[in-house]
Specification:
Elements (H helix, E strand, L loop, with lengths): L3 E7 L3 H15 L3 E8 L10 E5 L2 H6 L2 H15 L8 E6 L2 E3 L5 H10 L3 E7 L14 E3 L7 E5 H7 L22 H11 L3 E12 L2 H5 L1 H4 L4 H20 L4 H18 L9
Parallel strand pairs: 1-2, 1-4, 2-3, 6-9
Antiparallel strand pairs: 4-8, 5-9, 6-8, 7-9
Helix pairs in contact: 6-10
């Protein structure tokens, strides 16, 4: 039995998605099953590794985006009675680029060595966070970009909305369609429930933003600048409606508060604090 379910989200970029799937299969095939979600892709732009196809009207028109897409994949695993088979779930955007070596095994070793980690992310070469990992390869953070999350099963089970008939709010709040601020909410839920969110430089994962910049028409989304504006505007409205926050800074401080409380409860883990 394989330890990890890898979920990859595709929308009309089958070559990019297939390359990522083949990379993971080559370096981590003994540790993971890979599931590809077609997020309203055109029939002629499906990955050859497609597992589930979101082909209803709204998905075809708008896609699922990250939050709804990953929720959908997790919901399908639960419905197919496969969820309990895995120790962790590796959520990948298809524009994630990994190094030519094992990815999942070193991440699992970190989970094994620190049972408080519920969310684990590789670092990126372009993240400022890498400068905070000089003296220790893995540390806990209150914000992590979500292009490559390894989530421990027990963490997911602590916070997921399994009673929901819809998949849209299973893990991430799919009401926030484009997702600005959803990383904060997930990490806040981690620390509130006595889990930590970590970044490690033992594994590197970079995001290739050129796909959105050059292939927006193919992906059937807005141009990069318009998409970015909608991403922020819609996310801020969601924060205000759900939390009463008027700024992204307020959301960050909300998460930071629970981050600090976590270390008050676990002084033995202060070496992991930034």
């Amino acid at each position: 039995m394989k330890k990890v379910a890898t979920i990859v989200l595709n929308r009309n970029l089958p070559v990019v998605t297939d390359q990522l799937v083949e990379h993971v299969n080559f370096y981590d095939k003994d540790l993971t099953d890979i599931y590809v979600i077609e997020s309203g892709s055109d029939p002629n732009n499906l990955s050859q590794y497609a597992t589930w196809y979101a082909d209803w009207e709204s998905a075809i028109k708008n896609g699922l985006r990250y939050a709804r897409g990953m929720n959908y994949g997790l919901k399908k695993l639960i419905e197919e009675k496969k969820f309990e088979d895995y120790e962790a779930f590796f959520l990948l955007t298809n524009d994630t680029e990994l190094e030519a070596k094992e990815t999942i095994n070193p991440l699992l070793e970190i989970l094994k060595s620190n049972p408080k980690i519920g969310i684990l992310s590789p670092c990126s070469k372009v993240w400022g966070e890498r400068f905070l990992l000089n003296n220790k390869s893995t540390k806990f953070f209150w914000f992590i970009h979500n292009n490559a999350y390894l989530l421990r099963k027990e963490f997911i089970k602590d916070i997921y909305n399994i009673e929901e008939n819809s998949f849209e709010k299973l893990l991430f709040d799919g009401e926030n369609f484009r997702g600005y601020g959803l990383e904060h909410e997930l990490i806040a839920k981690a620390y509130i429930n006595d889990w930590a969110a970590a970044i490690t430089r033992d594994v590197i994962a970079n995001e290739n933003e050129s796909h959105l910049l050059t292939k927006a028409d193919l992906i059937k989304t807005e141009s990069h600048n318009i998409n970015l504006k909608l991403y922020v505007d819609e996310g801020l409205k969601w924060m205000k409606k759900k939390y009463g926050f008027k700024s992204h800074w307020s959301m960050q401080q909300y998460v930071k508060m629970f981050y600090d409380i976590f270390f008050e409860m676990h002084p033995e883990l202060l070496d992991f604090k930034i």
